[in-house]
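Q: Protein A?
A:
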Amino acid sequence: MNMMRSMKIFTGAVLITAALSAPAFSQGAPQTLSLTKVDPATLATGYRTSKVVGSAVYNAANEKVGTIDDLIVTPGDKVPFAVLSVGGFLGVGTKYVVVPSNALEVRDNKMVLPGATKESLKALPDFKYAK
Protein backbone atom coordinates (compact mmCIF):
# COMPACT_ATOMS: atom_id res chain seq x y z
CA MET A 1 0.00 0.00 0.00
CA ASN A 2 2.90 2.36 0.73
CA MET A 3 4.32 1.61 -2.71
CA MET A 4 0.98 2.41 -4.38
CA ARG A 5 0.71 5.70 -2.53
CA SER A 6 4.28 6.63 -3.44
CA MET A 7 3.56 5.89 -7.12
CA LYS A 8 0.46 8.11 -7.07
CA ILE A 9 2.39 10.99 -5.47
CA PHE A 10 5.25 10.53 -7.94
CA THR A 11 2.84 10.46 -10.92
CA GLY A 12 1.03 13.55 -9.63
CA ALA A 13 4.32 15.40 -9.20
CA VAL A 14 5.38 14.49 -12.75
CA LEU A 15 2.06 15.73 -14.16
CA ILE A 16 2.23 18.99 -12.22
CA THR A 17 5.83 19.56 -13.31
CA ALA A 18 4.92 18.91 -16.95
CA ALA A 19 1.97 21.29 -16.77
CA LEU A 20 4.02 24.05 -15.20
CA SER A 21 6.93 23.69 -17.61
CA ALA A 22 4.79 23.88 -20.77
CA PRO A 23 4.73 27.27 -22.50
CA ALA A 24 1.74 29.43 -21.68
CA PHE A 25 -0.11 30.92 -24.62
CA SER A 26 -2.23 34.01 -24.15
CA GLN A 27 -5.19 34.86 -26.30
CA GLY A 28 -5.02 37.74 -28.73
CA ALA A 29 -2.19 39.25 -30.69
CA PRO A 30 1.40 38.66 -29.66
CA GLN A 31 2.92 41.58 -27.84
CA THR A 32 6.30 43.09 -28.42
CA LEU A 33 8.13 45.63 -26.36
CA SER A 34 10.92 47.78 -27.63
CA LEU A 35 12.87 49.75 -25.12
CA THR A 36 14.26 53.18 -25.84
CA LYS A 37 17.48 54.31 -24.27
CA VAL A 38 17.04 57.54 -22.34
CA ASP A 39 19.88 59.73 -21.13
CA PRO A 40 18.94 60.72 -17.57
CA ALA A 41 21.25 63.77 -17.67
CA THR A 42 19.49 65.14 -20.75
CA LEU A 43 16.08 64.29 -19.35
CA ALA A 44 16.87 66.20 -16.16
CA THR A 45 17.19 69.41 -18.19
CA GLY A 46 13.55 69.12 -19.32
CA TYR A 47 10.43 70.61 -17.77
CA ARG A 48 8.06 68.64 -15.55
CA THR A 49 4.39 68.86 -16.43
CA SER A 50 3.67 69.97 -12.87
CA LYS A 51 5.80 73.06 -13.55
CA VAL A 52 4.51 73.67 -17.09
CA VAL A 53 0.78 73.51 -16.32
CA GLY A 54 -0.27 76.92 -15.00
CA SER A 55 2.57 78.73 -16.75
CA ALA A 56 1.83 81.96 -18.55
CA VAL A 57 2.38 81.92 -22.31
CA TYR A 58 3.92 84.95 -24.00
CA ASN A 59 4.35 85.94 -27.62
CA ALA A 60 7.57 87.19 -29.21
CA ALA A 61 6.67 90.76 -28.15
CA ASN A 62 6.62 89.58 -24.50
CA GLU A 63 2.83 90.02 -24.24
CA LYS A 64 0.93 87.47 -22.19
CA VAL A 65 -1.42 85.65 -24.58
CA GLY A 66 -2.67 82.79 -22.41
CA THR A 67 -1.96 80.19 -19.76
CA ILE A 68 -1.18 76.50 -20.08
CA ASP A 69 -4.18 74.72 -18.63
CA ASP A 70 -3.19 71.16 -19.41
CA LEU A 71 -0.99 68.83 -21.47
CA ILE A 72 -2.61 66.00 -23.41
CA VAL A 73 -1.04 62.95 -25.00
CA THR A 74 -3.21 61.07 -27.49
CA PRO A 75 -2.75 57.41 -28.31
CA GLY A 76 -1.92 58.02 -31.97
CA ASP A 77 0.24 61.13 -31.82
CA LYS A 78 3.81 61.24 -30.58
CA VAL A 79 3.70 64.97 -29.81
CA PRO A 80 1.81 66.10 -26.71
CA PHE A 81 -0.59 68.99 -27.07
CA ALA A 82 -0.90 72.01 -24.81
CA VAL A 83 -4.35 73.23 -23.86
CA LEU A 84 -4.21 77.01 -23.46
CA SER A 85 -6.78 79.14 -21.71
CA VAL A 86 -7.14 82.48 -23.43
CA GLY A 87 -9.23 85.53 -22.69
CA GLY A 88 -11.59 85.81 -19.80
CA PHE A 89 -11.11 87.12 -16.31
CA LEU A 90 -11.06 84.91 -13.21
CA GLY A 91 -12.39 81.99 -15.26
CA VAL A 92 -15.32 83.90 -16.74
CA GLY A 93 -15.27 84.05 -20.53
CA THR A 94 -12.21 81.81 -20.75
CA LYS A 95 -11.75 79.90 -23.99
CA TYR A 96 -9.67 76.74 -24.32
CA VAL A 97 -7.61 76.10 -27.46
CA VAL A 98 -5.04 73.47 -28.35
CA VAL A 99 -1.57 73.90 -29.85
CA PRO A 100 1.14 71.27 -30.37
CA SER A 101 3.54 71.50 -27.45
CA ASN A 102 6.47 71.65 -29.85
CA ALA A 103 5.13 75.05 -31.04
CA LEU A 104 6.02 76.41 -27.59
CA GLU A 105 9.54 77.58 -26.91
CA VAL A 106 11.27 78.22 -23.61
CA ARG A 107 13.08 81.54 -23.50
CA ASP A 108 14.49 83.00 -20.31
CA ASN A 109 12.40 80.49 -18.31
CA LYS A 110 9.20 81.70 -20.03
CA MET A 111 6.89 79.73 -22.30
CA VAL A 112 6.75 81.56 -25.64
CA LEU A 113 4.41 80.92 -28.56
CA PRO A 114 6.03 82.82 -31.44
CA GLY A 115 3.63 84.66 -33.72
CA ALA A 116 0.68 84.31 -31.35
CA THR A 117 -1.64 87.10 -30.32
CA LYS A 118 -4.67 86.97 -28.06
CA GLU A 119 -6.83 87.49 -31.13
CA SER A 120 -5.18 84.71 -33.16
CA LEU A 121 -5.60 82.28 -30.28
CA LYS A 122 -9.23 83.29 -29.72
CA ALA A 123 -9.83 82.60 -33.44
CA LEU A 124 -8.78 78.94 -33.00
CA PRO A 125 -11.54 76.33 -32.56
CA ASP A 126 -12.83 75.82 -29.02
CA PHE A 127 -11.47 72.81 -27.16
CA LYS A 128 -13.88 70.96 -24.88
CA TYR A 129 -12.68 68.36 -22.40
CA ALA A 130 -14.29 64.92 -22.78
CA LYS A 131 -16.14 63.84 -19.68
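Q: Protein B?
A:
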Amino acid sequence: MSTANPEKAPRMRPIPSFIFASRWLQLPLYLGLIAAQGVYVFHFWVELVHLLEAAFGSQTALQALINSIGYKSDVAITSLNETIIMLVVLALIDVVMISNLLIMVIIGGYETFVSRMDLEGHRDQPEWLSHVNASVLKVKLGTAIIGISSIHLLKTFINAANYDEKVLIAQTAIHITFLLSAIAIAYTDTLMTRPESTPH
Protein backbone atom coordinates (compact mmCIF):
# COMPACT_ATOMS: atom_id res chain seq x y z
CA MET A 1 0.00 0.00 0.00
CA SER A 2 1.44 3.38 -0.98
CA THR A 3 1.43 6.21 1.54
CA ALA A 4 1.07 9.87 0.65
CA ASN A 5 4.12 12.03 1.00
CA PRO A 6 3.33 14.53 3.81
CA GLU A 7 5.93 17.01 2.51
CA LYS A 8 4.34 17.28 -0.92
CA ALA A 9 2.29 20.44 -1.25
CA PRO A 10 -1.32 19.99 -2.38
CA ARG A 11 -2.05 20.89 -6.00
CA MET A 12 -3.62 24.32 -6.26
CA ARG A 13 -6.71 25.03 -8.34
CA PRO A 14 -6.05 27.01 -11.57
CA ILE A 15 -7.42 30.40 -10.46
CA PRO A 16 -5.68 30.48 -7.02
CA SER A 17 -2.50 29.24 -8.73
CA PHE A 18 -2.71 32.06 -11.29
CA ILE A 19 -3.36 34.67 -8.59
CA PHE A 20 -0.47 33.38 -6.48
CA ALA A 21 1.86 33.41 -9.50
CA SER A 22 1.03 37.09 -10.06
CA ARG A 23 3.54 37.90 -7.31
CA TRP A 24 6.25 37.50 -9.96
CA LEU A 25 5.02 40.74 -11.53
CA GLN A 26 7.00 42.46 -8.78
CA LEU A 27 10.27 41.01 -10.09
CA PRO A 28 10.83 43.80 -12.70
CA LEU A 29 10.35 46.34 -9.91
CA TYR A 30 13.17 44.85 -7.84
CA LEU A 31 15.37 44.57 -10.95
CA GLY A 32 14.68 48.25 -11.56
CA LEU A 33 15.79 49.07 -8.02
CA ILE A 34 19.01 47.14 -8.67
CA ALA A 35 19.58 49.34 -11.73
CA ALA A 36 18.89 52.43 -9.60
CA GLN A 37 21.48 51.19 -7.11
CA GLY A 38 23.96 50.96 -9.96
CA VAL A 39 23.30 54.64 -10.71
CA TYR A 40 23.97 55.49 -7.06
CA VAL A 41 27.25 53.54 -7.12
CA PHE A 42 28.31 55.46 -10.25
CA HIS A 43 27.35 58.79 -8.62
CA PHE A 44 29.29 57.88 -5.48
CA TRP A 45 32.48 57.20 -7.41
CA VAL A 46 32.12 60.37 -9.50
CA GLU A 47 31.86 62.48 -6.34
CA LEU A 48 34.73 60.60 -4.66
CA VAL A 49 37.01 61.09 -7.69
CA HIS A 50 36.15 64.80 -7.74
CA LEU A 51 37.00 65.03 -4.03
CA LEU A 52 40.37 63.33 -4.54
CA GLU A 53 41.18 65.46 -7.57
CA ALA A 54 40.22 68.66 -5.70
CA ALA A 55 42.46 67.60 -2.82
CA PHE A 56 45.36 67.57 -5.30
CA GLY A 57 44.52 71.05 -6.58
CA SER A 58 42.16 70.49 -9.52
CA GLN A 59 40.03 73.63 -9.91
CA THR A 60 37.64 71.87 -12.31
CA ALA A 61 36.93 69.11 -9.75
CA LEU A 62 36.59 71.71 -6.98
CA GLN A 63 34.01 73.67 -8.97
CA ALA A 64 32.10 70.46 -9.72
CA LEU A 65 31.96 69.71 -5.98
CA ILE A 66 30.82 73.23 -5.13
CA ASN A 67 28.04 73.03 -7.72
CA SER A 68 26.91 69.57 -6.57
CA ILE A 69 26.60 70.52 -2.89
CA GLY A 70 25.18 73.99 -3.59
CA TYR A 71 27.86 75.74 -1.55
CA LYS A 72 28.14 79.53 -1.87
CA SER A 73 30.62 81.95 -0.37
CA ASP A 74 31.27 85.69 -0.49
CA VAL A 75 34.95 85.07 -1.27
CA ALA A 76 36.44 83.16 -4.17
CA ILE A 77 37.09 79.50 -3.34
CA THR A 78 40.41 78.27 -4.71
CA SER A 79 40.96 75.19 -2.55
CA LEU A 80 39.11 72.72 -0.38
CA ASN A 81 38.06 73.94 3.04
CA GLU A 82 36.67 72.06 6.01
CA THR A 83 33.06 72.94 5.23
CA ILE A 84 33.24 71.72 1.63
CA ILE A 85 34.95 68.48 2.69
CA MET A 86 32.32 67.89 5.39
CA LEU A 87 29.43 68.54 2.98
CA VAL A 88 30.92 66.22 0.34
CA VAL A 89 31.55 63.46 2.90
CA LEU A 90 28.00 63.81 4.21
CA ALA A 91 26.74 63.55 0.62
CA LEU A 92 28.74 60.33 0.19
CA ILE A 93 27.35 58.96 3.47
CA ASP A 94 23.88 59.89 2.23
CA VAL A 95 24.44 57.84 -0.93
CA VAL A 96 25.62 54.87 1.14
CA MET A 97 22.60 55.03 3.45
CA ILE A 98 20.19 55.23 0.52
CA SER A 99 22.01 52.27 -1.02
CA ASN A 100 21.54 50.35 2.24
CA LEU A 101 17.85 51.25 2.12
CA LEU A 102 17.64 49.92 -1.44
CA ILE A 103 19.28 46.65 -0.36
CA MET A 104 16.74 46.22 2.44
CA VAL A 105 13.85 46.88 0.06
CA ILE A 106 15.23 44.62 -2.69
CA ILE A 107 16.26 41.62 -0.58
CA GLY A 108 13.65 41.95 2.16
CA GLY A 109 10.82 42.71 -0.25
CA TYR A 110 11.72 39.87 -2.60
CA GLU A 111 12.02 37.43 0.31
CA THR A 112 8.72 38.58 1.84
CA PHE A 113 6.49 39.11 -1.18
CA VAL A 114 7.93 37.11 -4.09
CA SER A 115 9.96 34.01 -3.28
CA ARG A 116 12.29 32.51 -0.71
CA MET A 117 15.98 33.00 -1.45
CA ASP A 118 17.10 29.89 0.49
CA LEU A 119 19.95 31.68 2.27
CA GLU A 120 19.73 29.63 5.46
CA GLY A 121 23.25 28.66 6.45
CA HIS A 122 24.89 31.07 4.01
CA ARG A 123 27.73 32.89 5.76
CA ASP A 124 26.72 36.24 4.21
CA GLN A 125 23.02 36.01 5.09
CA PRO A 126 21.94 39.34 6.67
CA GLU A 127 21.08 38.89 10.34
CA TRP A 128 17.76 40.69 9.95
CA LEU A 129 16.67 38.53 7.01
CA SER A 130 16.21 35.41 9.14
CA HIS A 131 13.15 36.92 10.85
CA VAL A 132 12.00 39.41 8.24
CA ASN A 133 8.32 40.01 7.59
CA ALA A 134 6.23 42.95 6.44
CA SER A 135 6.14 44.52 9.93
CA VAL A 136 9.87 44.14 10.57
CA LEU A 137 10.61 45.52 7.11
CA LYS A 138 8.44 48.60 7.77
CA VAL A 139 10.25 49.34 11.05
CA LYS A 140 13.69 48.91 9.48
CA LEU A 141 12.76 51.09 6.52
CA GLY A 142 11.42 53.75 8.87
CA THR A 143 14.69 53.70 10.83
CA ALA A 144 16.73 53.95 7.62
CA ILE A 145 14.63 56.91 6.40
CA ILE A 146 15.24 58.71 9.72
CA GLY A 147 18.99 58.21 9.26
CA ILE A 148 18.85 59.59 5.72
CA SER A 149 16.73 62.54 6.86
CA SER A 150 19.24 63.24 9.65
CA ILE A 151 22.09 63.42 7.14
CA HIS A 152 20.10 65.81 4.93
CA LEU A 153 19.24 67.98 7.92
CA LEU A 154 22.87 68.08 9.06
CA LYS A 155 23.99 69.07 5.54
CA THR A 156 21.41 71.87 5.54
CA PHE A 157 22.49 73.19 8.95
CA ILE A 158 26.17 73.15 7.99
CA ASN A 159 25.32 75.11 4.84
CA ALA A 160 22.56 77.13 6.57
CA ALA A 161 23.80 80.48 5.25
CA ASN A 162 22.71 79.44 1.75
CA TYR A 163 19.18 78.41 2.77
CA ASP A 164 16.09 80.42 3.56
CA GLU A 165 14.76 80.24 7.12
CA LYS A 166 11.52 78.67 5.85
CA VAL A 167 13.55 75.83 4.27
CA LEU A 168 15.33 75.15 7.57
CA ILE A 169 12.03 75.08 9.48
CA ALA A 170 10.37 72.88 6.85
CA GLN A 171 13.22 70.34 6.82
CA THR A 172 13.23 70.20 10.62
CA ALA A 173 9.46 69.65 10.68
CA ILE A 174 9.73 66.91 8.04
CA HIS A 175 12.47 65.17 10.03
CA ILE A 176 10.36 65.29 13.21
CA THR A 177 7.42 63.88 11.23
CA PHE A 178 9.57 60.98 10.02
CA LEU A 179 10.73 60.37 13.58
CA LEU A 180 7.21 60.35 15.02
CA SER A 181 5.97 58.12 12.19
CA ALA A 182 8.72 55.57 12.83
CA ILE A 183 7.95 55.58 16.57
CA ALA A 184 4.24 55.06 15.82
CA ILE A 185 4.99 52.18 13.42
CA ALA A 186 7.32 50.50 15.94
CA TYR A 187 4.78 50.94 18.76
CA THR A 188 1.96 49.57 16.61
CA ASP A 189 4.12 46.58 15.64
CA THR A 190 4.88 45.96 19.34
CA LEU A 191 1.16 45.98 20.18
CA MET A 192 0.37 43.58 17.33
CA THR A 193 3.11 41.11 18.24
CA ARG A 194 2.63 41.25 22.02
CA PRO A 195 1.44 37.83 23.28
CA GLU A 196 -2.00 37.83 24.82
CA SER A 197 -2.01 37.40 28.58
CA THR A 198 -3.53 34.14 29.68
CA PRO A 199 -6.30 34.36 32.30
CA HIS A 200 -5.42 32.97 35.74
